[in-house]
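Q: I have 196 residues here and want to know how they pack in 3D. Can you give me a structure?
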Amino acid sequence: MPLFYLPPVAWFATLKTYQPDVVIEREEHFPKQTYRNRADIYSPDGKLSLVVPVIKGSKNHTKVKDVKISYDFAWQRLHWMSLQGCYRRSAYFEYYEDDFAQFYHQQYEYLFDYNEALLQFILKAIKLPLVIQHTETYEALYPNLIDHRNDFSPKREFNFGQKPYFQVFEDRMGFMHNLSIVDLLFNQGPHSLNYL
C-alpha cells in the first residue's frame, strides 16, 4: 500500500480487508499528483483538495521517504481552517479536534513521517489494530503480494461499492464518494470502523 496524506475512505476499506498483513511502500520514487500529498474533503462549494506542498526538486527521482515538506507559505493554517470550516458542524469534529490540531501546529521535515504520524492517530481513532511494516527496497512487482500502489488516484474513481453515510453538505450536492477518511471520521466518529 502507498502512504497518503489523510487517505481516502477506499484506502482504509482496502487496508481493513488485508490487515494486519499490510506493508507500506516507502522506497518508491515520489509520483506527482497523487494522494501522497493531497486529500479531498467536502466543502460548502463541493470537493476541496488540500495539498501539502513539497520542496522543489523533491518530485523527480526522490524516494517518498526522502521528500521534504515546504513551509514557504502557511499551508498548515490553511488546511486547519479548511477542516474547521467544513466540519465544525459535523457530529464528531469537536471530539477529535484537539488531537488533529497538533498536526497543523507542529512542523515535520519529511512528508512520509508526517503522513505516518497522521495514519497512526487515525488508526487509533477508528480503533483499527495494525502493525505497520515498510518495504526495505523498491520492487517493480511483488509476485507474492497484492499490490495496491497504483490503485488510488485523484484522477479516477475507485469503485468499491461505497454506501452513503451522512455528510454535512449532502443537502447541497448529494453524497460524495471516496473523500478523505476525516470526512467519515468527523461524520461517523466511533462508528467509522463498522462502516468500513
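Q: Anything worth noting?
A: Helices lie at 9-18, 75-87, 93-101, 111-125, 170-173, 181-188, 192-195. The two ends are 17 Å apart (CA to CA).
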